[in-house]
Amino acid sequence: MPAPAPVTVAPSSGPPPARATLSVVAPKAVKKNERFTIEVQVSNAANVFKAPFTMVYDPIFVEFVGATEGGFLKQGGTQTTFQTTVDKNTGQIAVTMNRAGDASGVNGSGPLMTATFKARNQGPASFGFLGVNLADKEGKVQETIPFNTVVEVK
């Protein structure tokens, strides 16, 4: 009986690309009429030049007050652009943020945005994401897992 033919295994092209995560750091509970802040954080990001996303919140329970850019895309002192467009009726904040000029993308973890809300009514105020598109300078999007959270308004 002839010996079995050797099996050839193609070399691995390395591990699959890492998935970034997008999450909300928020208090577990707030009191009605209290102002509070949440922070949108990215983790495990690779070569991010632009980070557009839409944050969704429940306008029955909270009211959007304002937002400021976090430091993640500003790494290395690079200039950035940051813009929010808010629809307070549907509870959506469209966020556009980019590094400027010929800067390269950034890696790692850090804050993308801090947002301030006012608690309006008692109940579970949810925060989440739509259309997360962390991308490099050429527009190649990194797979990103968004995590939602809930703040209890008491």
What does this structure look like?
It is elongated, with a radius of gyration of 20 Å. It contains no helices and 11 strands. It is mostly beta strands. The N and C termini lie far apart (78 Å). It has one domain: Immunoglobulin-like, CATH 2.60.40. The chain has a 6-stranded mixed beta sheet with strand order 2-11-9-4-7-6, with no helix packed on it. A 5-stranded mixed beta sheet has the order 5-8-3-1-10, with no helix packed on it.
**DSSP summary: helix tally:** 0
The first-level CATH class is given as Mainly Beta
Say what the CATH topology is: Immunoglobulin-like
**Oligomeric form of this entry?**
single chain
Q: What is the chain-wise order of helices and strands?
A: EEEEEEEEEEE
Beta-strand content bin: over 45%
Ends: how far apart?
78 Å
What structural class do the secondary elements suggest? mainly beta
Rounded mean pLDDT score? 91
Largest sheet: 6 strands, mixed
Provide the low-confidence segments as ranges.
6-14
Please describe the topology of this protein:
Layout: E1 20-25, E2 29-30, E3 35-48, E4 53-57, E5 62-69, E6 80-87, E7 92-99, E8 106-119, E9 123-130, E10 144-146, E11 149-153
Parallel strand pairs: 1-10, 2-11
Antiparallel strand pairs: 1-3, 3-8, 4-7, 4-9, 5-8, 6-7, 9-11
What keyword list fits this structure?
154 residues; mainly beta; Immunoglobulin-like; 6-stranded mixed β-sheet; 5-stranded mixed β-sheet; elongated
Question: Can I get a quick summary?
Answer:
The chain is mostly beta strands and 154 residues long. It has strands at residues 20-25, 29-30, 35-48, 53-57, 62-69, 80-87, 92-99, 106-119, 123-130, 144-146, 149-153.
